Each structure stands twice: as C-alpha cells, then as structure tokens.
Amino acid sequence: MENVPDAAEVVKDWKPPRSIQAPAGSKSIRRMSRRQCWKGLQLMDREGKGLRVVTSRPFACGEVICDFHGRLISRDEGLEIQQNNQTQAGHLFFFTSKNGLDMCLEAHEERCACHPNKTTFGRQIKHSAKRTNLSPRLHFVEDDPVILFMATRDIQTGEEIRYDYGDHRRSYAGDGLDLTPS
C-alpha cells in the first residue's frame, strides 16, 4: 500500500491533452506555415549524416508537427530535376492538387525566398521505411497546397522524426500517393 498514489495528487497534477489534428483551415496552421515557427523541434548535426530534426517536447499521435515548405512547380519540372540532379532529388515532394493537377514542392534551397533567414524543418526530415513516426498529409492554406507532417504515434522528447519518402515505391513522383486532402 506504500506505492499507491493519492487521488488528490493525481487530479492536481493532471493536465488535459494538447490539441490533436488541428483542422486544415485552422488559424494556427496558417500562422505556423506562413511564419515557419514550428514549436518543439530543433536541428541537430549527426556526424557524417548532416542535420536531423529532433523533438524538444513530446507530441501526441495525430498532432501536426511541421510542414514541407518549398517552391511550387509542375510534376514534369520536378521529374526533370530528379533525373538531372540527384543531389536535389531528395528535396522534392510530388502530389496531386485539388484541381487534379500533378504538382511538386521543390525545396533544394536551404533557405526559401519567403523565409530567407530560416532553415525549414520539413526539408531536413530524414527517411526511414521501418522507423517512421510521421505521415504526410495534403492540406490547403488559403488555396495554396501545404504538406503537413502528422505524428503517427506518440513521440517522446529527444526523438528524431522520420517519414517514408516513398522513393522505392511504384507510386513515387505522385502516382497514387495517399495524400488525400483533409
């Protein structure tokens, strides 16, 4: 009976869970995407592997972590970049817009034109097919396509975030990707 917590202490220390899955039209999503001020993330250098994104706070399953931010180009332009320059190919995100157009977000520049003083987190997220903890979802912020990364499970402080790039699937380059708008 010594290891049983007092119910009053448990209730006093309880905090409600953070918001899960903010709606696509949410003001906070628009603000964070526009300003690129995603909280709870930090960049860390891993020797020989470059920058990686690590959490500085816990995230709940389904919570929006950050976005993939880049220049919007056509699918054909993205495929051309992929074929001609393999170093830039890792910073392409193919999808189909709500108008049915095949598009690509291209983020090979470390700093984008709209955020010249910031390195965006989504660009630095590493690939993992087996240890993934994020899932990309297509959203529209003021009719502009935005790829949001959402936690697929609870993520602890200090954990590296990863998603499956899908580049080993037949659906790579936007054919059949499950990025249905939410």
Describe this structure in words.
This protein has a 3-stranded antiparallel β-sheet. It is elongated, with a radius of gyration of 18 Å. The protein has 5 helices and 10 strands. The chain has one domain: SET domain (Beta-clip-like). It has 182 residues and is an alpha+beta fold. Mean pLDDT is 76; it is low at 18-22 and 170-182. The termini are far apart. The chain has helices spanning 7-13, 27-35, 75-84, 86-89, 121-124; strands at 41-46, 50-55, 64-68, 71-74, 92-96, 102-106, 126-127, 134-141, 144-151, 162-163. It comes from Sinocyclocheilus anshuiensis. One of its GO terms (molecular function) is histone H4K20 methyltransferase activity. One of its GO terms (cellular component) is polytene chromosome.
- Any idea of the CATH class? Mainly Beta
Number of strands: 10
Number of domains: 1
Compute the number of helices. Answer: 5
From the structure above, extract its key features:
Beta-clip-like, 5 helices, 182 residues, three-stranded antiparallel beta sheet, SET_dom, elongated, 10 strands, KMT5A, 19% helix
